[in-house]
Every structure is written in C-alpha cells, then in structure tokens.
Amino acid sequence: MSQGKSHKIFGIFVFILLILICAYLFLHSSFFAVDKIYVSGSNNVSESEIIKISGLSPGMNIFTINEKLCNQAVAIHPLIKSSTLVRHLPRQVEIQVKERKIWALVPYQGALLCVDNEGICIDKLSHFSMVNYPVITMDKMPEHINLGQAVNDNGIKLAWQIWNGLDANERKEISQFHYQNKSGEVLIYSQGCTEFRWGNAERLEEKIAFFKQMLEIENDMQAKGNNDLVYVDLRFKGQPVVKTVME
Questions:
Q1: Long-range pairs for 106-111 at CB < 8 Å and ≥24 separation?
Q2: Which CATH number describes the domain made up of 33-99?
Q3: Whole-number pLDDT of residue 32
C-alpha cells in the first residue's frame, strides 16, 4: 500500500473518530439535560408522587435515563398498573401511567378490600357503596393483606371472566360470587337467592350461555309469584342440573 493511500485512510479514520467524539459530547451535553418531567393518565395519584418514585429529576441527561428501572419503580405503586416512559427531545420526559381501577369488593376482617380485575388490593375501606361493584367472598383469606398484594388472583380472575361475559342487566342479577379455595370453584348467588354452582374455568362460554338462560327462567318464575329454584349446577357437560323446592 502506498504511503499516500495510507495517509488518506488514516485521515478518514481520524475524521470519523472526531465525528463520533463530537456526537458523543453533543448527546451528553446540557442541550439534552431534562428540564421538564410530567405525567399523563393519572387521576388518583398525584403527579409529584409519581415523579418522586420514578427517580427522575431535572438535569438528568435524557439519553442516560434507565427506562426499565423507571417504569418498574412507578408500577410498584398499588394504584398503578403499568408505566411507560416517553422521551420528547430535546429536554422533556413524559411518564404515561395506567391506573388500577376498582372492580370488586372483598369482605375482610370487618372491612372491604377494593380489588381490580387481577385481584390486586387497591384500598381498604370500612364503608363503601356496593351498588356498582360485585362482591366476592372466599372460604379462606390470608391473615394479612397489604396494598398492592394479590388477593387470591385465581378466584378474582375467574369471577372477572364470568362478569365480563355478561351484559349490564345480567350483572345486576348477581348478588355475590363465592370462591371455594380448596376446590378452586365458584358459586354465584343471584338476587333471587338461587345458588349457581359454576365450578372452575372450564367450558366458560357454554356455562355463560346456560347461566343467562337460567336467569331468564328465574325471572319468569318470580314474575308468576314463585321462587322455587334452589340451585342450578353448571359444573358438568350438557344441560344444567336444576333443583327446585318441590323436588
């Protein structure tokens, strides 16, 4: 290789190196120092609290922020389901949060646990209106339950699957879900006091269809002045097993 060609290659190498150094220095300069941090999607948790637990602060370089750690830190909060950090170049950072929402109430030691559809305990209240939320009882509850802890997520999720398959009017017909911890099965009590023996999560769509039919039958019976249904067993394939007062 000629000396002139070697000098040319060396010059190109130096030029590229200088560009990389300049780019590095620019990206790590004060031009990209965060001057604004804000939160979106939060209604029940204050912006200041979310920013505090995120570990972010003004002056941090926008490119060196550990996005994964930030999101994990924010999602630890019991009211927050997930968090996403979004960089808005050159100097703004947005924390997008998805809050947990109360779905059901679980009676517990004289209080009510407010849980979301994953069974995560969001709050503990001594008094709460039950009008808009289903009630879920269980055979066995943990001795201690903290905010952010799952309250038998298998039972809560099964009740949620059933609830999610019903319309608003059908949901109003449910008085209570009861989860049997040992068997992993659910009982549903209607407003008409009929016990529906649901069983586990198997054949979910089939059971929902039968459940809707039996609610209609129950309503028709009550409209005619009788309430003879004792229980409806949906646990087995085929038509439900129905027990009435006369049987």
A1: 106/135, 106/136, 106/137, 106/138, 106/141, 106/151, 106/156, 107/135, 107/137, 108/141, 108/145, 108/151, 109/141
A2: 3.10.20.310
A3: 86
Mean residue pLDDT across the chain = 89
pTM of the model: 0.79
Every domain of the chain and the residues it spans: 1-31, 33-99, 104-244
Task: Report the candidate in 142, 224, 222, 235 with the shortest Cα–Cα distance to residue 187.
Answer: 235
The secondary structure of 81-128, three-state, reads: EEEEEEEECCCEEEEEEEECCCCEEEEECCEEEEECCCCEEEEEECCC
- CATH fold group of domain 104-244: Rossmann fold (3.40.50)
Contact status, residue 96 vs residue 41, Cβ threshold 8 Å: yes
User: What is the pLDDT confidence band of residue 155, given thresholds at 50, 70 and 90?
Assistant: very high
**Sign of the dihedral defined by the CA atoms of residues 205, 211, 213, 215, in that order:** negative
In DSSP terms, which residues pair with 96 in a beta bridge?
40, 84
19-37 per-position pLDDT tens digit? 887 777 666 768 889 999 9
DSSP-assigned states of every residue in 208-242:
HHHHHHHHHHHHHHHHTT---EEEEE-SSSSSPEE
Q: How many helices (H) and strands (E) does the chain have?
A: 6, 12
